[in-house]
Every structure is written in C-alpha cells, then in structure tokens.
Automatic annotation (TrEMBL):
<protein>
    <submittedName>
        <fullName>GNAT family N-acetyltransferase</fullName>
    </submittedName>
</protein>
<dbReference type="InterPro" id="IPR016181">
    <property type="entry name" value="Acyl_CoA_acyltransferase"/>
</dbReference>
C-alpha cells in the first residue's frame, strides 16, 4: 500500500455509521494485546460523536482509519482521551500520533482548565503522550470519580488493580496539568527517550513482568490453603 493520506476531523452525526466498526476493532485490539480497555457500545460512541467529543480519521477515499474520544470526570476537572484505535491496515503510518494530537487540541478547547490524563500499557502511546506534555504520575494523582474506575472492571487485569487498592496496575498513569505547563514541558520528554522508544518498551515490559509474577505468586500461595 502506498502511503495513504488522512483527514482527521471532529466526529459528527455524519460519522455515526462507523460506530459498529470502531467498537469491534477496539475489542479485537484489546484481545490481541492481552490487556483490556473499558468496553463501549456503538451507542456510546455515537453519543460522543453527537456531543462533538471525538475525532475520526478517514482516508481521502473515505475509508475509516482511526478514532479517539473525550471523557470528562470529576465535574470536568479531569479529562481522559480514551479509546484510541487505528485500523490495522493503517498502523504503520504515524496515524496514532496525529489522532492523539487532534484529540488533545479538542480537549484543550472544550476543557481548557482540566487536567488531561491517560492510562496505557503501550510504549508508543507513552512516547506520544510525553511529546504532548504528559508526565508519569501515581494513580493517586488521577480522578477519584468512581464512574471512571468502574470502566476498569472489563479489563482482564482488574484483579491486579484491586489487589493494589487501586494504586497501581500494568497501566502507566500519565497526566497533563495546564496549571503547571512550563514545569511539565521541562521534564516531559527526556532527551534519551526522544532518541529511543525502546526505553519506554523496557519500562512497560518490566512493569508487566513484575505485576504478572506477583499475581502468579499470590495465586500459588492461595492454592496451598
């Protein structure tokens, strides 16, 4: 496939027909990674489109290529850019970075004072977030809105989250705080991380190794009783 051209725009009612495809790809992608994301119905995705809280990527021929939406928590004090998905045929063209950039701009426009956060197991997403000004934080720095955390119940790793009293899991928490923009930009993306995404990959692999082995150890211990 030759390098395709993309159009990334705020999703509207004109894009409702893509909702089923988007939710199906979200679920399949989570299964392939062996991790989980909050399951969303086509109706939920349509609602985000109607509210103007999503961006969609299409090829210039009108083929669906990617999607991401905004969720607000804690009465708008926190915002999450959720459900980032790129259609498999278009995953090697830097589209995820372009979508993240557009949904970040939309979030800043709609919620200029909100803290923008994300939970991810993906090294590539961590790097993109860093480029936008996010920094790694503890789970305690995220929203305490129970509705947000309920979304983790559909994740295959939810038992790890519960065992850690919701203070840690396989996902890395990252946060953009507009009130600390200057400080955040200074520390957000280390020079060595700019040069080598493998440092992000090593971090995610290490965290996965530690967390999953702790769970296995706990299971083996419980099986003795």
């Amino acid at each position: 496939m030759e390098n395709p051209s993309f159009i990334i725009i705020p999703a509207t009612e004109a894009h409702l027909a893509y909702a089923e495809t988007i939710t199906t790809e979200m679920e399949e992608s989570a299964k392939a990674r062996g991790t989980g994301i909050a399951k969303r119905s086509p109706e939920y995705i349509k609602q985000k489109m109607r509210e103007g809280k999503a961006v969609i990527a299409l090829t210039t021929e009108g083929v669906w290529a990617g999607f991401c939406y905004i969720e607000a928590w804690g009465h708008g004090k926190f915002v999450a850019n959720s459900g980032l998905i790129v259609s498999p045929p278009f995953r090697k063209y830097g589209l995820a970075r372009l979508i993240k950039g557009e949904i970040f701009k939309l979030s800043r426009t709609k919620f200029p004072d909100a803290k923008i956060f994300g939970l991810t197991t993906g090294a590539a997403v961590m790097k993109i977030n860093s480029e936008l000004g996010y920094i790694p934080v503890s789970y305690a720095d995220l929203t305490d809105d129970e509705e947000f955390w309920k979304g983790c119940n559909s994740c295959v790793n939810v038992e790890i989250l519960k065992s850690k009293n919701r203070q840690n899991c396989l996902c890395t928490a990252m946060l953009y705080d507009p009130s600390k923009k200057a400080k955040t930009e200074e520390v957000a993306l280390r020079t060595d991380f700019k040069k080598n995404i493998k440092l992000f990959e090593r971090w995610t692999q290490l965290k996965k190794y530690v967390m999953l082995n702790l769970r296995k150890t706990k299971d083996k211990t419980l099986s003795l009783f």
